[in-house]
Specification:
This protein is of the alpha/beta class. The chain contains six helices and eleven strands. The strands form two sheets. Strands 9-8-7-10-6-1-4-5-11 form a nine-stranded mixed β-sheet, with helices on both faces. It has a two-stranded antiparallel sheet with strand order 2-3. The relative contact order is 0.18.
Length: 247
């Protein structure tokens, strides 16, 4: 069984975010980038577990991005991926990302495509389902557990008020969230081996953009804190009635 894991590059949550003067583009200077945690901790690690158990024969990684995404792909290889593919384009449109991955994957014979439930930059949660549609594969989203035997996947996912169990035949696309696996740290052997593992750069297919970002906006700055004397309950009640905002 061949597994393809979708990897996306996202800003570290500790990075200071800023936009251009017209608020139409994201300023990348000084921003630290990481592997999207849902892709790394859950999708990739579960794929590696399947390989270690003998269920999978190969784990490939794919990302849609420019050359500055190479370091995060190398880190994913250090965790245990066998080879990586970078589709040489950059887009914030989830359809373009999904279409580029699907265009590459359709001729490679993957039995299982894994991705995180969403990326922590745009939080769309749409790419996995789009890949499944474009590849005409079954899709299960927001999975917390997955076991595979005899060409059939048994998958648990969270639903409102409980858990749902699904069975689906391969080939299959699954988006993963917390519970699917435990995060790993690359060891020195993996880091050294990642330097020589294949990283193939593929030119993008012709895909039309269907969504675009019209503008960015930072959240409003937090207001100050008003201190009220513990003995002055009338002032506290007045502030709660007249100034407090329910969020």
């Amino acid at each position: 069984m061949k597994i393809l894991v979708c990897i996306s590059q996202v800003p570290d949550t500790t990075s200071k975010i800023a936009f251009s003067d017209d608020n139409k583009s994201f300023q990348k200077d000084g921003v630290t980038y990481i592997i999207n945690p849902y892709d790394e901790w859950y999708a990739l690690v579960r794929a590696l577990e399947l390989k270690e158990a003998g269920t999978a024969s190969a784990v490939h990684l794919v990302t849609v991005g420019t050359q500055d995404a190479d370091p995060i792909i190398r880190k994913a290889l250090a965790l245990g991926g066998d080879e990586a593919i970078r589709i040489n384009t950059d887009s914030s449109d989830p359809y373009v990302v999904a279409a580029q991955i699907a265009e590459y994957a359709k001729s490679e014979g993957y039995d299982l495509v894994l991705c995180g439930k969403e990326s922590i930059d745009y939080n769309n949660g749409a790419v996995g389902a789009m890949i499944a549609e474009l590849l005409d594969m079954n899709y299960v989203g927001f999975a917390t557990k997955m076991d595979i035997a005899d060409g059939t996947a048994t998958i648990n996912r969270e639903i409102e008020g409980g858990q749902e169990m699904n069975t689906a035949g391969l080939p299959l696309v699954v988006s993963c969230q917390k519970g699917m696996a435990e995060a790993r740290i690359p060891n020195m052997r993996g880091i050294m081996a990642a330097r020589t593992k294949p990283l193939k750069v593929v030119e993008p297919a012709a895909v039309d953009t269907v969504t675009e970002i019209s503008s960015y906006e930072l959240p409003p700055a937090k207001g100050g804190v008003k201190m009220v004397d513990a003995e002055n309950m009338d002032e506290l009640v007045s502030l709660l009635h007249n100034e407090a905002k329910v969020i």
